[in-house]
Specification:
The protein is mainly α. It has a domain of 44 residues. Helix content is 66%, strand content 5%. The strands form two sheets. It has a three-stranded antiparallel β-sheet with strand order 1-2-3, with helices on one face. A three-stranded antiparallel β-sheet has the order 5-4-6. Helix 4 runs antiparallel to helix 5, helix 14 packs antiparallel against helix 15 and helix 16 crosses helix 17. The longest helix is centred in the middle third of the chain and has 18 residues. It is elongated and about 95 Å long. It binds zinc ion. The site of zinc ion has 9 residues, from loops. InterPro entries: Rubredoxin_2, TPR-like_helical_dom_sf, TPR_rpt. Keywords: Metal-binding.
Length: 374
């Protein structure tokens, strides 16, 4: 039988282009390869001349789901000790074979060794892959340990903060409240992102520590007003409960010039309404500007209701029409790294796997416009 293996023997050294071997005049499509790996390795020992072909073949095995074959080829390359292909590089390949196969324990075992033994570049890759494995397993405790132990090459503190948060969510019901607070404190100390303040506020609310919850929500809004849509409605409920409407009104009126979001003005108007006070001319002017922008149905309705010249029949026609228009353009969350869009809020982008990069499109636009003005 004339197999391409025989031809391969004849025409060494080989060239490799894309998925095809080119041996002299013969072209072989890798995807149709059906040989016995051990046999092949015996006949054609791995050398500098053919190592690229073996690497390509191993990758193909991995993509085809033949993970044991991928591992044995990678292991054979590692044993051959070819210059330019370090054992660290091959360990990472083997770990990826196991990862792709779903044999995560084996993958971690290989990565643990690579992380310690490899040069800086490979050890960084090993770290990333290991962390991705732990994230996919939702093993937040060990993910936190890994990051604490080996640092955060190139990914910043936001990732660690989010690992802490995921961990807290996972153990919240089983861990003592004091220990949960300890983890949250560690996360807060990193002083990045908005999530830890939101989570802190939610937990404080559950534990009926309402003042602490209000403080946490306010810190979140000061640090990252783009998260206003996540914080405002629970915050409004809390201040009503605690009778702190006046102080929240002052807070929001100070926040608004830096981040003139329609959501904040809606809350300002709501707080005025509930206390029965009229808007000052300055806030009346802001109200009119927002009505002209057409971004808020509640504010438009509020403004229309102020107009004594409009009859009830005009209002009856206008109001549902405006509501439909405002609902037609609902806000979405968009990743600032890769553009992925999602209706519900997600803390990790499913497309590029960055943490805390999904933001309200509307609130992000305001931040950008403010930057231009400033
Ligand atoms: Zn993304």
């Amino acid at each position: 039988m004339v197999t391409w293996l025989n031809l391969f023997r004849k025409f060494l050294p080989a060239r490799f282009a894309g998925r095809r071997f080119i041996l002299g005049d013969y072209h072989f499509d890798l995807t149709s390869f059906e040989g016995d790996v051990a046999d092949w390795l015996n006949k054609f020992p791995i050398s500098a001349a053919n190592v690229e072909i073996y690497l390509a073949l191993a990758e193909l095995f991995r993509r085809r789901g033949e993970f044991d074959k991928a591992v044995s080829v990678h292991e054979a390359i590692a044993e051959a000790e070819i210059a330019g292909h370090s054992s660290a590089e091959l360990s990472l390949e083997i770990a990826q074979d196991y990862y792709a196969a779903g044999v995560l324990g084996h993958a971690e075992e290989v990565l643990r060794r690579a992380l310690v033994d490899a040069d800086e570049d490979h050890s960084r890759q090993a770290f990333r892959l290991w962390l991705a494995i732990l994230e996919s397993e939702q093993d937040w405790h060990r993910a936190v340990e890994l990051v604490e132990q080996y640092g955060l090459p190139g990914s910043g503190g936001v990732r660690l903060v989010n690992l802490y948060c995921e961990y807290v969510l996972q153990v919240q019901t089983t861990l003592a409240p004091a220990l949960v607070q300890k983890v949250l404190k560690k996360a807060r100390k990193l002083a990045v992102g908005a999530r830890v303040d939101l989570l802190g506020a939610q937990i404080a609310t559950e534990e009926q520590r309402f003042t602490a919850a209000i403080r946490s929500y306010k810190r979140l809004l000061r640090n990252d007003p783009r998260r206003v849509h996540l914080a405002l409605s629970p915050l409004l409920a809390l201040v009503q409960r605690e009778g702190q409407q006046a102080s929240l009104l002052t807070f929001l009126q100070r926040l608004y010039p830096d981040h003139p979001s329609v959501r904040i003005l809606e809350a300002i108007v709501e707080l005025h309404q509930s206390s029965g006070t009229a808007l000052t001319p300055k806030w009346q002017k802001q109200l009119e500007l927002q009505v002209m922008s057409g971004d808020s149905y509640p504010l438009t309705l509020y403004w229309l209701n102020q107009q004594q010249t409009l009859s009830a029949s005009v209002m009856a026609v206008l109001s549902p029409a405006l509501q439909r228009q405002s609902l037609a353009e609902s806000d979405v969350h968009q990743c600032t790294e890769c553009g992925f869009q999602s209706e519900p809020m997600r803390w990790q982008c499913p497309q590029c796997e960055s943490w805390e990069t999904l933001c309200s499109r509307y609130e992000s636009k305001i931040v950008q416009e403010q930057k231009k003005v400033g």
